[in-house]
Amino acid sequence: MKNIVIIGGGLGGLTSGALLSKDGYKVTLLEQHNIVGGCATIFKRKGGFICEVGLHEMEGVYSPQIKKIFDKLEVYKNVAFIKPQEFFKLYSKFGEFVMPDGVENAKKALKVKFQNEVKAIDKYFEIILSLSDCFERLSHLKWYHYLFFPFLFAPILKYKNKSVSEVLNSLTQNEELKLILNATTQYYNDSPKTLSILLHAIAQSSYYKGGGYFIKGGSYKLSRYLADVIEQNGGKVITKATVIKATKNEVIYTLANQNITLKADIIISNIAPVDTYKLFEIDFKEEKQIAESISTIYIGFSKNLKNIYGKGAYSNFIAQENKPFVFVDYSQIDSGLVDDTKSFGEICLVDELKNWEDLSQNEYKIEKELLLENVLSILEMYYPNIKAIIEFAEVATPKTMKRYTKTPNGTAYGYKPTPKQFFRIPQIKSQKINNLYFVGQFVIAGGFSPAIISAEMCCKRILKDT
Ligand SMILES: Cc1cc2nc3c(=O)[nH]c(=O)nc-3n(C[C@H](O)[C@H](O)[C@H](O)COP(=O)(O)OP(=O)(O)OC[C@H]3O[C@@H](n4cnc5c(N)ncnc54)[C@H](O)[C@@H]3O)c2cc1C
Question: What confidence score (pLDDT) does residue 146 get?
Fold first, then answer.
């Protein structure tokens, strides 16, 4: 039986470990933090709060690709996925707009609001749906399809170098419509000007077609369940285990100040290639630009927001000129994060490690307080007196992200999904070490579904190679 050692217990590492242990491989997963999940985890705070680290909405939960994986691992039977009522709500200088779920519902709502833009709306959906359809077919590609690539996948070739802004500008001059169609950009990138239309099309189509889902009780439920599958199938999941060195056949990690060596027939890395090759002491210069990071404000409310402000949207995008952010109001769903008398909320904004890493301790503290004050004051414009019911509010910066996940620049989104970088063959297998494989945010893209799909691709490749 082959020994598989997995470096990192994010969704990519956990899913690949669960799949391979079910297939009879002997899996050992090493996670440096004291809890598995990477970005897909939780932490707890006084007052009964379970704080979700990141998940707003997972797309593709019932898509054919994810369904195949989740059916095999019996995820649906063991993890509860909760669907908010709508895709998102946007607050902007133009007013408010609620984007419903479902392609036809979304088109209808847009056409009611923008009666002179019917053609642009139809064309936009035609483009994103045809692109996402191409990518779905790409995942089942046989060798002979490559001969017909230009015919079978013409939309990809047409749009692969285009940004979201370029495509939207070619369809309409209506600024409000454009803002609505790219309202969720910060789920993927800092700006629609540098975001690949391909990634936008795949992710947005998935949200429109299948909706976005939260995991009841927090995303750790999924991560922990995957870890349990590894253990139930004879594998090991070791936390507080930091990998410090690797060779082709060995992985060395530290646990409680001791260096421990594990034999490995196959190594799967759930960390960035640049950090992986450092462990192997192999020269590797990362040519690709890393995606931005995120600042997150975790808020515990002493009251249930839904009881105070009424039924509203779950995912609220606030399109401020210089600091757009998204506010997730978990009271709108049965989140399982805190009892019904209280609620939990989260604010996320795109940010960069360089804005924080060189600050002195005192400057860092002050900047965090300023960010908190600034963002909460804006939030109060939409939720009057919300500050009065805050039980706690904590800011996590890209520096915090870096500390907990160790990703380059503290990113959660792998390589920056620009038109130039996004369309590439996923690097599942290392080109430098023949028993080294990659999973996670640096393979396809950031996000729950891409990390999980990368794991399945990796397992398929390992089954083929061994
Ligand atoms: C605030 C926030 C909001 C988000 N919202 C969403 C959302 O709504 N929808 C969505 O789909 N996605 C969202 N994401 C993105 C998504 O969570 C990530 O892209 C995805 O979970 C990354 O998975 P991964 O497999 O790459 O593992 P990662 O989460 O990157 O985990 C890698 C793991 O490796 C471990 N590690 C690192 N170095 C070592 C070492 N030397 N030894 C041992 N272990 C090591 C780390 O501790 C970590 O646990 C969000 C992320 C954040 C942070």
Answer: 66
Decide: 348 in ligand 1 pocket, CB within 6 A. yes
CB 258 within 8 A of CB 224: no
User: Do 366 and 374 form a contact (C-beta atoms < 8 A)?
Assistant: no
Report the separation in Å between the CA atom of 10 and the middle of ligand 1, taken as the mean of its atom positions: 5
pLDDT at 370 over 90: yes
Q: Is 389 helix (H, G, I), strand (E, B) or coil?
A: helix
How would residue 306 be classed by pLDDT, with cut points 50, 70 and 90?
very high
Q: Do 449 and 219 form a contact (C-beta atoms < 8 A)?
A: no
Torsional sign, CA 419, 422, 423, 424:
positive
Element (H or E) spanning 68, and its range? helix 64-73
Please say whether the beta carbons of 186 and 348 come within 8 A.
Answer: yes
Q: Looking at the whole model, is its pTM more than 0.70?
A: yes
Structure tokens at 35: 């809890």
CA distance 404 to 410: 9
Phi, psi (deg, nearest 5) at residue 266: -135, 140
Q: Which two tokens stand for residue 1?
A: 């039986």
Closest CA to 447 of 59, 45, 67, 44: 59
331 forms beta bridges with none
Ligand 1 contact via 270 beta carbon (within 6 Å): yes
Q: What is the DSSP string of 206-247?
A: HHHHH-EEEETT-THHHHHHHHHHHHHTT-EEESS-EEEEE-
pLDDT average, residue stretch 72-93:
97
**Residue nearest to ligand 1 atom 24, measured at CA:** 440
Residue nearest to atom 17 of ligand 1 (CA): 39
Residue 164 has which token pair?
């979201």
What letter represents residue 441's amino acid?
Answer: Q
Q: What are phi and psi of 31, to 5 degrees?
A: -125, 130
CA–centroid distance, 443 to ligand 1, in Å, is: 13
Phi-psi region of 256 (alpha: psi -120 to 50; beta: other; left: phi over 0): left
293, β-bridge pairs: 351
How are the residues of the chain apportioned to helix, strand and coil, as percentages rounded to the nearest 5? 45, 25, 35
- Output the six-digit token pair for 51: 């704080």
pLDDT over 80 (residue 145): no
Q: How many helices (H) and strands (E) does the chain have?
A: 17, 20
Distance 359 CA to ligand 1 centre (A): 25
* Other beta carbons less than 10 A from residue 251's beta carbon: 24
